[in-house]
Every structure is written in C-alpha cells, then in structure tokens.
Amino acid sequence: MRVLHVITGLAAGGAEQQLRLVLPHLAAGGVECEVVTFTNPGSIAEVIRAEGTRVHHLGMRGNRDVAALPRLVRLIREGRFDLVHTHLYRACLYGRLAARLAGVRRVVATEHSLGDELIEGRRRTAGVRALYLVGERLGDVTIAVSDTVARRLREWGVRATRIVVVPNGIDAQRFRFDPAARVRVRRQWGIPPESFVVGGVGRLEHPKRFDVLIRAVAGLPDARLVLVGAGSQREALAGLARTLGVEDRVLLTGEIADVTDEMAGMDLLASTSGDETFGLAVLEAMANGLPVRYVRCPALEELPPDRAPGAERMGLGEAETRAALAAAADEATRLPPPPAVGDYDIARVARELQQLYAELHGPAARRSGSAPSRVRRHEDG
To answer: 289: left (phi > 0), else alpha (psi -120 to 50), else beta?
Structure first.
C-alpha cells in the first residue's frame, strides 16, 4: 500500500515529531510512505529523509496560496497513492480536497491540535469551525490523538462514527536516560553538575505559557531554566528574563529535532500549557526518568493515576507553579520509566494505523464504502 502523508510544515513540533517516529514502523509493516510539506521543510524533514522516507516540498506561500492545490493534485496523481493521510489544519483542508480531485478513494486526517480555545494558534471562531467541517466531510476518518480531542471534535460537530482514537506514541528506548549525555549537555550549557535545572520543551508561543515558567524560576534563586524550542515569543521571553534579572539562569536553546540529550541534562520537566491535546513532551520526559509537573496532560489524565508515579498536576498561576517547582526541587531524583510510558509505545501506534489503513483500503471497504471498525486503544487494557 502506498500512503502520502500531507503536513503543513516540518519544523520541530509534536505533530511533526509524531509523523517522523511512526514512518519507520509503517515501512517495516509493509506500508510505503512519502511525505509532502506545504512550508518550512525544517529539521524534521532532514531527519525523515535521513531515515529513508522521501519528502516533497510544495513551496506554499501562505494560507491563501491556492496555486499550491493543483501542484498537490498532480503530486498525488503521479505518485499513484492508495491513501492520503493529512496532519494539521491547513494540510487537512487542502490535502483532503486535493486527494478527492486526484481520485484517491480513501482519506484519513489526524487531529493533533484542537484545544478548548485554539486550533494550532487560531481562535476557534465560527468561521474556522465551518471551514473545518466542510473539509472534514471530504475525508473518511478523523483520528483523534486523545479522548479529550475526540470529545472536542464531537462538540464541534464531527459525527462520532467518523472519529477513531489513536493516541500519540513514543520510542521509550530512545529516550532512556544516559548519564554521559547529562555530563556532555551540561558542559555545553555551561551549567554546573550540581545545579537544579527545570526544563520546558515546546514551541515558544503564547499557549505554552513559558512566561509563567520564567517568572516562577526567577523566584527560586538556586534554580535554572532551559527552554527547548523555537517560536515567535523567543525575543519576548529573552526580554522577560533580562527584565527580571535572570538572563544568566535562563537558557533558550532554539529548535532541536532530537531532545533526548537535553532531557538528560534536566532535573524536572514543567509543562505550563493549560490547553494541551496530548502531552508528548511529558511522556518523553518520564521515559527519560524525569519527575514532571504539568497543568494539563490528557495522555496521563486518561490513564489510572498509578500508571504515572512521579508526575503531578500543578495550578495555572505563577505562585502555584513556583511552589510546585520548589517542592519538587527538594526531592528531584531520576526515576524508572513508569507504566504510562509503555502504554504509548510507538510500535503499537503504528500497528493501529496499519490496521486502519487496511480496513479502509480492503476489498470489503471498497465494496461497501463503510467506515472501519472503531478500536479505542485504552479499551485494550
């Protein structure tokens, strides 16, 4: 089976990392994949190519660059793909339409970023919702990365029979803690081995609320903060650190495709976002043995509490964040990866995608036009 994955961009981000992780497993299962990115063939594109998957760059100039649509239709036709799988808002809109125009019978979309108030940084306005639902009808199935996202999709007007939950996954072995990496990365950062380092991982945008994290760490004289990621708020966050007089204790690393070494250099991961759809960085941190403090993490909230010892919820405010970090600093130690890490194994996620593809593409589905059976991963136990 030939599958084209269509995604808006390939800079380092949760959806982009998830695609990169699952592709080798799909290939090992006999699914031949290619990827097309509308914009920004960044660090993740380089990794995907290096791992053996072809990446196309559509060269889209903006949301209204409709000239990209015929280019995408031509790419799909020439590639003779059996199924198109879209990721992220713009790619889902253009990708579903292009797939239908190219004559592809089966179209799947993954919804990675539908929050309570935002979808990929856009306000959830009536216009955005209407356009989303028009595009959704051009596909067969929308994959939700958590039960939380599935609920939001239903509330937005997507029929439950068109939604299947396939959570994100991680490669736990890749994130296993390496003491040598800790020494190496701390030397690169210029941070002493004994310092208490709080980490934040994600795009430097308003919804991540990294400004709250900087203010909280500013009130902890012995703590340092490392923020891993890129985004429009980088300069504002650096300016805030200067204003608070803690620029020597706050490090912004920029975009990094593989954050394994960076997590090894941390003592605690803090996730301050109040509107998460999954919480991939939280799981990666736990695989690395890090204690975690988080505001929202559907990946953990949808599991029994005993699956994630070492991970605790904290409040939204600066004072609550500071108190949570201060308490964690007194007990910070490396932990064994908790059971929750195994619950989200990337190989298992790939098998579920393969099953979904097979059900959509199989002879029975082609004859009946029916949707595939809905297997919800958490019901597997």
So the answer is: left
pLDDT, position 378: 35
Architecture of domain 2-169+345-380: 3-Layer(aba) Sandwich (3.40)
Q: Which amino acid is at 263?
A: M
Considering the four listed CATH numbers 3.40.50.2000, 3.40.50.2300, 3.40.1010.10, 3.40.50.150, the one that applies to the domain covering 179-343 is 3.40.50.2000
- Residue by residue, DSSP assigns 84-150 as EEEESHHHHHHHHHHHHHTT-SEEEEEE--B-SSEETTEE--HHHHHHHHHHHTTSSEEEESSHHHH
**Quick one: DSSP state of residue 3?**
E
pLDDT digits (tens, 9 = 90+) for 258-302: 999 999 999 999 999 999 999 999 999 999 999 999 999 999 999
Query: Using CA atoms, how far apart are residues 22 and 12, in angstroms rounded to an integer?
Result: 15
Residue 299 in contact with residue 146, Cβ under 8 Å? yes
CB 318 within 8 Å of CB 215: yes
| 356-365, long-range: CB < 8 A, 24+ apart | 356/108, 356/141, 356/143, 356/164, 356/166, 357/1, 357/3, 357/31, 357/83, 357/106, 357/108, 358/1, 360/83, 360/106, 360/108, 360/140, 360/141, 361/1, 361/82, 361/83, 361/106, 365/106
Q: Please give the Cα distance from 122 to 124 (Å, whole number).
A: 6
What is the pTM for the complete model shown? Answer: 0.90
